[in-house]
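Figure 3 (text version): structure tokens given as input.
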């Protein structure tokens, strides 16, 4: 029984570490003091916030959702999102690559596709001023 207790304790500790690591990823343009990554979803695609990127927001696409932060490990499936805001086109980029999210196009933050660990090259070009 003692070996099983150690195994169960190890699994619990590993789960906590994974939860903390997932929630402390750095994005940008965040709201509040939460330690969770700055991610939103738009049309079932996940995007991560990008800081200090010069871009122009275009026409309104729809609504982006910022899920509730899961940094305490107690989030339920029925918990409402942290917020919803308008999603806008980013001039020169496909919405599959990036969207601008905010209350207005002028105050929007750039969010890049988060389906891979790498920043999309088109967004990297904006970062570099290309």
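Below: residues designed for each position.
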């Amino acid at each position: 029984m003692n070996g099983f207790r150690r195994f169960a304790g190890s699994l619990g500790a590993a789960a906590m570490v994974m939860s903390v690591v997932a929630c402390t990823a750095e994005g940008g343009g965040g709201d509040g003091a939460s330690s969770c990554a700055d991610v939103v979803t738009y049309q079932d695609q996940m995007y991560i916030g990008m800081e200090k990127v010069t871009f122009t927001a275009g026409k309104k696409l729809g609504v982006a959702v910022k899920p509730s932060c899961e940094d305490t490990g107690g989030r339920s499936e029925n918990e409402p999102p942290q917020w919803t805001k308008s999603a806008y086109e980013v001039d020169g980029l496909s919405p599959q690559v990036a969207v601008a999210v905010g209350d207005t196009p002028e105050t929007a933050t750039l969010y890049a596709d988060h389906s891979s660990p790498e920043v999309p090259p088109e967004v990297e070009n904006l970062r570099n001023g290309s």
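Residues 30 and 42 are 17 Å apart (CA to CA).
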